[in-house]
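We modelled each protein-ligand pair independently. The example shown here corresponds to the NAI entry; the chain sequence is given first, followed by the ligand as SMILES.
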Amino acid sequence: MSKTITGFSKLDKEEKTTWLINNFLTDFPDSHSVLNQYLNPNKKLQQLHDEFIENSISNYYLPFAVAPNFTINNKAYVIPMVIEESSVVAAASLVAKFWSKRGGFKAEVLSTTKIGQVHFMYAGAYLNLETYFNSLKPTLLKATESITKNMRKRGGGILDIELRDKTSDLDHYYQLHVTFETKDSMGANFINSCLETIANTFRKDDVEIVMSILSNYIPDCLVKAEVSCDIDDLGENGMEFAKKFYQALQIAQVEPYRAVTHNKGIMNGIDAVVIATGNDFRAVEAGVHAYAAKSGKYKSLSQCTINDGVFKFWIEIPLALGTVGGLTNLHPLSKLSLNLLQNPSAKELMMIVAVAGLAQNFAALKALTTTGIQKGHMKMHLNNILNQLEATKDEKLMLVNSLNNQHITYNSVNKALQQLRVQ
Ligand SMILES: CC(C)(COP(=O)([O-])OP(=O)([O-])OC[C@H]1O[C@@H](n2cnc3c(N)ncnc32)[C@H](O)[C@@H]1OP(=O)([O-])[O-])[C@@H](O)C(=O)NCCC(=O)NCCSC(=O)C[C@@](C)(O)CC(=O)[O-]
Ligand SMILES: NC(=O)C1=CN([C@@H]2O[C@H](COP(=O)(O)OP(=O)(O)OC[C@H]3O[C@@H](n4cnc5c(N)ncnc54)[C@H](O)[C@@H]3O)[C@@H](O)[C@H]2O)C=CC1
């Protein structure tokens, strides 16, 4: 039987599911009901989700959670988080409460410039190309006027177009390097539309346009978030804690194996808010990790100092986020997330997301340098293990109580459950 198909995209949802079950899921008879149980009975809402992407056959739920008690620039926030990993939301909540008693988080947007490029090949004399570009530059801007009209009214649009000679990296390779201000939108579609118009206007016989696309590397779209307090206010053994915390950061600056995990912990917070607000987490991930490697070596995104008895901990990251456009106002839960955040501008959202990353990093480093990560993480993960072991509601209640403060592993929980069942 052939397991390839022509015209799959033209089948309706039921026909797609039937074809999948008959060809790939024959040994899993409950597949149809699993897929169907995640469909929303509200037909309009289901259709909205179906139309977000192509070949949709069901919905894939992730938990929608909130972390209360954040204070950012003296304003109170409850931060929405969408993530599958246990302990992340608890950690964010714990740290929000901790820092709200120590002046809260401070955050500022350092820059908001986005970048797009027309990549092209040209084998002629550079001087001729430069003359052509300089004479055409006003026409290139004019050609995009109908696309940029509303963005310019908002104070955004194209900031500049530069001709860049990249022939030292690749024979005949040049770029039109274009900078943009996209205000409250992430700007990908706006930037790409402008670039394609610029490329078409720039086109001539001896210029071979290869592609026109925004860059997800945005080192000039930066936000900084920080916390600081007197070492004595860090709690018991404040200096000992601060020193170990500082050492953990130093290690993440010099050791890429550690830096990647360190930054993964930061992304636990960042991605969760980016997803909850309907933003593009792949774009954010790509840009943030490139920024972490900007020196040529992959390093920690956060830093820490201990000076004159003051502990300071901060993060500086590039973030391309929107509070309009994409799914932000189309997905009812993204819209609700933005409402919960009191309808921030894109700049304010950049600060909130950076704070979520910093909070997560603080929680992980605090745990790592004191109790170890497993204690808190496994305490939160216990329910997942119990669900995997198909514990009943009563068994769960008893085991959550009896295993409190114990070292939790899959095996220890399994053993405790079996013991409970023979009692
Ligand atoms: C897990 C905690 C928070 C426990 O911490 P705890 O001190 O045992 O918590 P608690 O039970 O005493 O509760 C204190 C507060 O924590 C929060 N909290 C506590 N429990 C809950 C819960 N069930 N639901 C919601 N919030 C919760 C909540 O704010 C609560 O206050 P309250 O609400 O009672 O006023 C702590 O141990 C912790 O922060 N651990 C770090 C967890 C972490 O970083 N997880 C990320 C996953 S591991 C990873 O992927 C990254 C990593 C670690 O590899 C990165 C790296 O290496 O850098
Ligand atoms: N490499 C990448 O990252 C790519 C990402 N994408 C996707 O593009 C989408 C984001 O593109 P966008 O252009 O942001 O979205 P979009 O295409 O929905 O456009 C947003 C539009 O909202 C309008 N707008 C209304 N009020 C505004 C305000 N206050 N500030 C700014 N604009 C305002 C503007 O006309 C703007 O162009 C995301 O879904 C992303 O996943 C698409 C292509 C490539």
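The mean pLDDT is 96.
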